[in-house]
Fold Transcription termination/antitermination protein NusG.
Amino acid sequence: MSKNWYVIHTYSGYENKVKTNLEKRVESMNMEDKIFRVLVPMEDEIEVKNGKKKISKRKVFPGYVLVEMDMTDDSWYVVRNTPGVTGFVGSGSKPLPLLEHEVANILRQMGLEKVRHKIDVNVGQSVKVISGPFKDTIGVIQEILEEKAKVRVSVSMFGRETPVELEFGQVQKLD
């Protein structure tokens, strides 16, 4: 089974109706093992009117719906013949799946997937600061703050060791 995300084209304004219709069809036609998730990518939009903040949801891609599915003739047929669906995005009759990083970006933008930061350094290791006010300074990692995507580095300032908090991208491991 190769489950991928595909983009389906819908009539603009019908994205939520297509999502609902498709989810009902998946259930009634017992396709839960082939069609997994249906998403209408949304993001928060903050509007300020008369000094009041109003947060509303805005469609990121009007006229499009994402479907996570195992592409088979049966699953294609179910999606393609859902009312409001005008077709799959892809060349000709062959739908093209989204790339993994494209899906990750969309899910992150929707707040459905947390951003995972990684850094290849350990406590006690020397690093070079590559950006910011401490650029070109050499320091030693004191602490790695994973949840904040930051490191606490001890740098020498005015002849004394001073701890500074830097983002992962601001330091580089010394070889």
Summary: The chain has two domains: 3-110, 125-173. The mean pLDDT is 87. Residues 3-110 form a domain with the Alpha-Beta Plaits fold (CATH 3.30.70.940). Residues 141 and 153 are 5 Å apart (CA to CA).
